[in-house]
Amino acid sequence: CAEWLCAGSTMTGLAVEALQVRLPKARVLYSSATGASEPQNMLYMRRVGCFGFPDMASMIKMLKKSGLGAVEMFSMGLKATGAYLSRTLSYKDAEFRLDQIDLHPAFRVLYDRAAQFWTLLLKITEQLPKATGRRDLRKSLMWASHQRFFKGLLIASK
């Protein structure tokens, strides 16, 4: 196995790598319970393609360096081409309860200031030159970051 893959790999990852090397023409369907939550978890997916990088390790290194947004964009691209599926667990027999809580006044101030900041950021993003011929990725990344931020803020408030 390649040195870059062996370091920290699971037995399953090593077995998948060995099968791919021994059966170069075999069709492959990658399946993982954890998905692409960490770029390192995708090292064994050699047949997904390296998209101009010399190998998966180089591509993963760049994804890690570029941050969570790059990993999400990469995963979205794989999903769009049908190379990657993402599913959720079943909610069968799950029970949910809604509780109403009173927010601390300091949190209300924090939330209002955060909303003002994101409104300003949206206005700035809208003033940037538009990408020609394709979706505006900066705006998409801004909204993805916005959702992650407020999700974390609301979880922290609980």
Automatic annotation (TrEMBL):
Domain Strawberry notch AAA intervals: 9-113
MF GO annotations: chromatin DNA binding; histone binding
InterPro entries for the chain: SNO, SNO_AAA
Top-level taxon of the source organism: Eukaryota
One CC-aspect GO term: nucleus
GO biological process, one term: regulation of DNA-templated transcription
Name of a matching Pfam family: AAA_34
Name listed for the protein in its UniProt record: Strawberry notch AAA domain-containing protein
Organism field: Haematococcus lacustris
